[in-house]
Write a structure and sequence with these properties.
alpha+beta, seven-stranded antiparallel sheet, four-stranded antiparallel sheet, globular
Length: about 200
């Protein structure tokens, strides 16, 4: 009798985890280094192995969802004698990310104003070819231009999870806000923190 309850209990756990895999949990607000904030679904957890220079790294490895945030001060670019418009910088990010794949199919590009910040976005599917079957991925890039920084939000998932993830990544994008005082000076901290 006890063995039967144990088997039923394990079966129930497997069934529940199968039902929740891929579903987005309610978001919580994450503030990154006193520079920007974003609402991220609770099933995405902090990690540190997605990108060497990202100030924000969250993943739901089991669900196959990933998000990084990268900020780049304009002063750093000026020291290198490089000047980007928002469009130029967004093209640079798209080319850099897309360049890692064998094929890229762009589905949508937009120019938006989100919480008073100019933003350019792109949705695309990409694939790395192999002898067996291609690795297919969905990407959503959002590049924001603030007074003294560019911000990149890069979200990706397995292609077969695109429809569930796209809604979540668009909501994250819409929640993006620059922190700091009106003069545009940003406070810094060592890591992202939950509010």
């Amino acid at each position: 009798m006890r063995k039967t309850f144990t088997v039923i209990g394990l079966a129930l756990i497997v069934l529940l985890s199968a039902c929740t895999r891929g579903r987005m949990l309610p978001p919580r607000t994450v503030e990154v280094e006193g520079s920007y904030s974003i609402e991220i679904p609770a099933n995405l957890k902090p990690c540190n192995d997605l990108h060497d220079f990202a100030s924000l790294q969250y993943a739901d490895e089991r669900g196959g969802y990933f998000l990084v945030g990268i900020q780049e001060p304009k002063s750093k670019m000026e020291q290198l004698e490089v000047q980007y418009t928002l469009s130029d910088y967004a093209d640079f990010v798209e080319t850099t990310v897309g360049g890692a794949f064998d094929t890229v199919v762009v589905h949508q590009r937009d120019t938006l104003l989100i919480n008073g910040i100019h933003c350019q976005t792109v949705d695309f599917n990409a694939a790395v070819m192999s002898d067996e079957s291609p690795l297919e991925v969905y990407y959503h890039l959002a590049v924001f231009e603030a007074e003294d920084q560019f911000y990149q939000l890069i979200g990706w998932s397995e292609r077969d999870r695109q429809s569930a993830f796209r809604d979540a990544v668009l909501a994250m994008e819409q929640s993006f806000q620059v922190c700091g005082n009106p003069s545009g000076q940003f406070q810094t901290a060592s890591a992202a923190k939950l509010r």
